[in-house]
Design a protein that fits this description.
The strands form six sheets. Strands 3-2-1-4-5 form a five-stranded parallel beta sheet, with helices on one face. Strands 6-15 form a two-stranded antiparallel sheet. The protein folds into four domains: about 200 residues, 3-Layer(aba) Sandwich (Rossmann fold), CATH 3.40.50.620; about 100 residues, Serine Threonine Protein Phosphatase 5, Tetratricopeptide repeat; about 200 residues, DNA Cyclobutane Dipyrimidine Photolyase, subunit A, domain 3, CATH 1.10.579; about 140 residues, no CATH class. About 35% of the residues lie in helices and about 10% in strands. The chain is an alpha/beta fold. It binds flavin-adenine dinucleotide.
Amino acid sequence: MTNILLLILRRDLRVSDNPALHRLSSSSSHGFTNLLPVYPFSPNQIEVSGFIKDGTKSPYPEARSQTGNYWRCGPHRAKFLAESVWNVKETLETLESGLVIRVGKPHEVIETLVDGLKAQNHKVGAVWMVSHEGTEEKRDEKDVAIFCKAQGVEFELLTDEKYFIDDRDISPENQKDLPDIYTTYRKSVEPLREKPRAVLPIPAKGTLPAFLENIPPQKAPFEIPDRLEELVGALVSPVRHFLPSMPAFPEGADSAHPFKGGETSAQERLVHLIQSEGMKNYKTTRNGLIGTEFSTKLSAYLAQGCVTARQIHHALLEYENGTDDRFKDVDGYGEGQNDGTAAIRFELLWRDYMRLCHQKFKHRLFRLAGFKGEEDGGYKDDEKKPKWKTPVKKDAPEDQDPTPERVREIIDRFNAGTTGMGLIDASQRELLHTGYTSNRARQNVASFLAKHLGIDWRYGAEWYEMLLVDYDVSSNWANWQYVAGVGNDPRGEARIFNPIKQAFDYDKEGKYVRSWVPEVSKVEKLENVFQACTLSEDDAKAAGLEGNIMITDPVKRIEFSVEGKPARPNSRAFYRRRHRDPKSSQEDGGASVDGKPKPAPAAIVSSTASSIINTGSESSEKQTGHRRGGSEGYGGRGRGRGVGGGTRGYQRGSGSARGSTRGRGMGGPGITVHTPVHVHAPQEGGTVAFSHRGTHSVRGRGRGDYGSLPHQTPGHGHGRLSQGSRGGYGGRGRGGYGGYTPADQGAAYVHNVVAQREQAVIPPPQTGA
Ligand SMILES: Cc1cc2nc3c(=O)[nH]c(=O)nc-3n(C[C@H](O)[C@H](O)[C@H](O)COP(=O)(O)OP(=O)(O)OC[C@H]3O[C@@H](n4cnc5c(N)ncnc54)[C@H](O)[C@@H]3O)c2cc1C
């Protein structure tokens, strides 16, 4: 009598370091005569209509997302996934086993197999599957367990061992009460190099319980292809046209992620990264934007379980300990952990942490208000101003600005990469074409949608879910929450990435933007490449950009100064447009999306600010906790004085602004701010002066009166704001800054004012628009 084990594979598409296969191959005490590894393409997570050949309608609804109605899995990941599944199948075949590929929810697939096998007089002894984080994943596990129970089949849920620190080694405290700050978690598990368990070997040929010859067929109307190309076709063809007018792949642009899915490619990539010194140099290259070598590109393999974090760790150990000849010629061989390898471990732990957050917050990871926010999610709240702009009319307040129709338009342009903001557009187009974009670009893109535009960030998260080749439910949604300010970023709303400053810092020659946004490839000045609307009429004409929507109707304008020149978009055409068209009103550096005249732009000191902290970097954590008091004040380190008014309204408080270290702040008279205002702008009766000093500090002198702004009328006030001498930020320099409104992008100004390396312009005091 047979005793068959059905092993469901989901995101464990590897044969090495695979606990289930290891257990089955290393002992016969399990008692199974046969093993059927099964991979189900689950119809709620990936569109499966491409498996139907006879024109029948799919019994499943389309696999689309909830908010944006995008495909759950777009063409890039569909292809990568097909390759990964096929690779496991081929490797298992070399081990005299195999893989059953099926379409259907896991419990449906299991039911068909169990029924069919029983009909052949086989006994199915057990079903195993690895536990994965996720609401749908948990539901699938439950459904399989219920089915097994009803059938008298044993069911076992195995630990997911592809993370850096195994679940079994996570302390009860961390499991029960995971810290909300990554650094706290990291410190609780250091030293990282000692944490991962040993990797498990690949089962030897012929050691797995035998595969079966006669496998019950796939349920109609689906047909399972028997060639990889057909499998790719079945998965990709329904979702290929995900954008109404897809731009052509830019000539000369190269994918940073040309990699094929599967365990074999993952292992090759890992060895290459060590041999090419990519791992050793990781810390200095990881913020790159172009090419295959600037970061590991292991994320897609990790997401599908083609490689485990502990395998990466062990390969690094071999190199660091000098125990693998393949790496003997690599600089640093046998010399222990170096900056690069330590940084990789640090990032892998971020990945762990994102999953643990998902485990902790469960469905709250998908909520608009984030895991901390209230259940309603922030739309249409009678008491408070709705925080997020929505394209859905019924959800939007009547006076939503911009209108839902305009928000829809902006989202479409954001997706297509035609916002006019170079770095954002380049990243979004790279994503469209290749399924990959760097971590640096992702942070900017997410920040742009959520913080500069104030739009429901779930549209962005779902767009990423569709297009990212490395989409991972925990990493994607937790990172989006983090950047949107509703997740576990201790700086929350205050962290805003200035995409122009970021472009200057990370795309120093404009190569990245020019290569993915070919329209600006002939534009000469970087400031124009990074924000096309700053082109003068003549230059736009010369570059063939006359009438281009990125210039005539950018979704956002950000003030920016280059080497002391005035900061704002400065073409005459722009000012003419501004006066003609209220939608093109002067950008205030971050206050609102579009569509209404802005308050005075006068004292936009400079928006070249670096409020940029890299998710996952050590420095981001160092700058945490800089808020205290009733307002969100920032104190620099040291004894300088930061004086800021408190805010009233939704941020009620006494107005003391204090640095978390030793900055001191004095409360100002308080302000009531219901619309975004330039809190650092000189308002009536005052000036603000900031001067550049050194590389890392901004020296501020003088005072700007801005407090007590009348309700919704920025531009009047008699409060007081002083930037203490050497206004530092993030622990640099001294002095503090406080009392700004956290509403919308008001925070950006704070960063702008206190940012490093920027000087100020001192425009005449102005009142509201
Ligand atoms: C808005 C946003 C969405 C994201 N969505 C995803 C996603 O769906 N899937 C995904 O794997 N990563 C996601 N990330 C994290 C990060 O951008 C990618 O892991 C990284 O860019 C992948 O490239 P790499 O493998 O070359 O990374 P490397 O820089 O080489 O890092 C090594 C590994 O560490 C892990 N890692 C690095 N940074 C992070 C991070 N911030 N969070 C979690 N893990 C990290 C990844 O597994 C990565 O492969 C997202 C980040 C942001 C800001």
